[in-house]
Amino acid sequence: MSTIQDVARQAGVSISTVSNVLNGRTGRMGKDTLARVRAAIAALDYRPNRAARQLKTGRTPMLGLLVPSIANPMYGYIAREIETAAQERHGLRVLLGNTYRNRLKETRFFDDLLAHGVRGVIVVSSLVDERHFESAVEHGLVMVSYDRRATPEIRSGIDHVSVDNFEAARLAAAHLIEHGHRRLAFVTASGKTMSRSEKIDGFLAAAEQAGLRASARVLDCAARADYGDSEMVDVGREQAARIAGDAERPTGIVALNDMLAYGLMAGMREYGIAIPAAVSVVGIDGLFLSTLVSPALTSVELPVREMARTIVERIVGRLADPSLPTGEFLFPPRLVERDSVARCRDAEPAAAPEAAR
Amino acid sequence: MSTIQDVARQAGVSISTVSNVLNGRTGRMGKDTLARVRAAIAALDYRPNRAARQLKTGRTPMLGLLVPSIANPMYGYIAREIETAAQERHGLRVLLGNTYRNRLKETRFFDDLLAHGVRGVIVVSSLVDERHFESAVEHGLVMVSYDRRATPEIRSGIDHVSVDNFEAARLAAAHLIEHGHRRLAFVTASGKTMSRSEKIDGFLAAAEQAGLRASARVLDCAARADYGDSEMVDVGREQAARIAGDAERPTGIVALNDMLAYGLMAGMREYGIAIPAAVSVVGIDGLFLSTLVSPALTSVELPVREMARTIVERIVGRLADPSLPTGEFLFPPRLVERDSVARCRDAEPAAAPEAAR
DNA sequence: TTGAAAGCGCTAACAT
DNA sequence: ATGTTAGCGCTTTCAA
């Protein structure tokens, strides 16, 4: 690898001149000096050493990205959009870490980012407890959290970008209600993350508004202790078993997310419960896999690309101007109808006048 | 952030002593000197600046990982295993890049790695043309290619880790043959990557051996030009349409990979072709999603974790000793039976004596 | 057993 | 318009 020295020698100029070219300070530079430097750079196939530059400037064109597990299709999707936005819009590379929702792994990742001189980091769907985040922020990290709402009333050094989870679940439940369902359930994994609580609230609000609050149920179930990508799927399967044996079975189900819905549907199938004939299901996320399961899953879709862009812009912006206040950025979800919801057969005509159509 | 200077001052020693502690050269060090240094490090929450270290040593504990798109569940799975192996076994971080199978993006990623001082890189399922790889290797990158076989007879500066694709497809076809299928097809996307050709060969070899070569068909279909994660799914769907309209329709299908199989099954469903009653399907990859589609997909599973470990060990090994020769590492696949294969109804009893069981 | 000092490649004052 | 120079924080001889 050639260095700035080699380029300077080759071009017959000093290293400062080369450095000036490198950093775009070509304003009052001799036209042919510039040309000679450029030629030398090309001839030597010179690439500035980032470590040296970083040692001097304290900056490195890199972002950290922390996900529970990149094998989970939802996180893979988000990661792709974030990497693409960071690279194409700002030339930033992405350092990836799987945390398996382990606090120690998260902390170590922050430490490594700091040591590597990386100042911007995106944390996807982390733990409820955010204290170690604040500590990382104090050490100089500019952080954006995805899929966690800000804790109300607490000033945070972290940007929060997420979908309106309340609205997402409300939309899903309302869709079921519109189709005449009156025995509703929200199926979730236990362990209250903030986004889960919000979804539950949205679900219950829709039920309440339709006068169905009394019969609406929230079914949760412990996930396996160790984080796996099939965690949600397993929860769905397990819940299917429980629901199958339930005499007062719900006819309309909102799933915490698409992966859980897939597991739920697979489980239902094993118990011979037809979807959507016997039970209708709505997911949340809008993964492209939802078109592949059978029946294709009706789901509340998240504007992932837009969120990814906002995340990157926030980091870049606050990196450039640390005095910028942090904020909360909420995105609207959108229901995408597919084939997992049918009109409820038990629906009373009075309650659903359009049942005959 | 505190520096080595701060630690030295706090401990009342020179920076060399601190550096020695940092690098484990504590052999003949005063017992309490060591203790004082350690205490100072802890007290100041000191973390060595990697950029400075790298500038000196030329090394940085980081690997590059290039995938077509991390949103593709198969690449997400591989990426997770690689990141985990790199981090847990060697403390290495992973720099991720999506290439969308674009040669320019790949080249730029290599350039950036070099500039960042990263010397090890893993390339997953890249283009057929490997010339830009060799150029990167000449510039000092230690490279491992996943899912591409070495070009025979050509000495390469690259390690190749892959599954035995021939065997994978052979296994899949043999499984169909065992179930009495005599009209076989291999469904693939057009564009001949090496792994695809090998799979085709394995498929045809199995057909040949069963005397079914004449009727065995390879169906390919152009993917959309721009790389997308639903690329394979779309190809599967399109092929389903074609197969549905085929009077001499195959009864046993081997899909290039699981994603394509999902699309194929979804397409078949739309055309009212029952799986496995009318057509049996076998995928290749063994993604966990295969348990979620309906019917659950019988698939030839890849030993992804073992492959990921080998990939990391190869890089680390050759980074430590560049004189190590590169090699090819082939892993055996394994058939996992689920519900997408049934005994062929058209099977002639003579050809399949156990048909009556 | 510990310390002094050179230098990795670059940026950005400051000089000229 | 271009060059000189002082570090950024660390590792590693070499000397004491």
Sum this structure up briefly.
By secondary structure, chain A is an alpha/beta fold.
Distance between the termini of chain A: 74 Å
What overall form of chain A do the CA principal axes indicate?
Answer: elongated
- Please report the first level of CATH classification, the CATH class of the largest domain in chain A: Alpha Beta
Give the tally of β-strands of chain A: 12
Q: Assess the beta-strand content of chain A as a share of residues.
A: 15-25%
Widest sheet, order of strands of chain A: 2-1-3-4-5-11
Q: Over all CA atoms, what is the radius of gyration of chain A?
A: 26 Å
Main sheet overview of chain A: 6 strands, parallel
Give the assembly state of these chains: homodimer
Q: Please give the most extensive interface between any two protein chains, plus how many residues each contributes.
A: A-B, 55 and 54 residues
Order of helices and strands of chain A: HHHHEHEHEHEEHEHEHEHEEHEE
CATH architectural type of the largest domain in chain A: 3-Layer(aba) Sandwich
Report the total helices of chain A: 12
User: What structural class should be given to the helix and strand makeup of chain A?
Assistant: alpha/beta
